[in-house]
Design a protein that fits this description.
By secondary structure, this protein is mainly alpha-helical. The protein contains 3 helices and 2 strands; from the N terminus they run H-E-E-H-H. It comes from Dissostichus eleginoides (Patagonian toothfish).
């Protein structure tokens, strides 16, 4: 028996904890700029985001999701 009336709920954390960066194939979490830089600077550099300009581009993309 299938449930034809499935519901999907999204909490506010979905927009901060589930941001996918397609170009780096990476899910990230965003709480603040400081947290994002601390948690993802090294990871993103290893994935090819090596210049400050590239990191700023990524950061600006992430901010559009919040």
């Amino acid at each position: 028996m299938t449930n034809k009336h499935r519901q999907f709920h999204i909490c506010n954390c979905f927009t901060t904890d589930n941001i996918f960066l397609e170009e780096y194939k990476l899910h990230v979490r965003f709480v603040s700029e400081q947290q994002f830089r601390r948690d993802y600077d090294v990871v993103l550099r290893r994935l090819g985001c090596v210049t400050d300009a590239q990191f700023e581009d990524v950061f600006n993309k992430v901010r559009t999701f919040i």
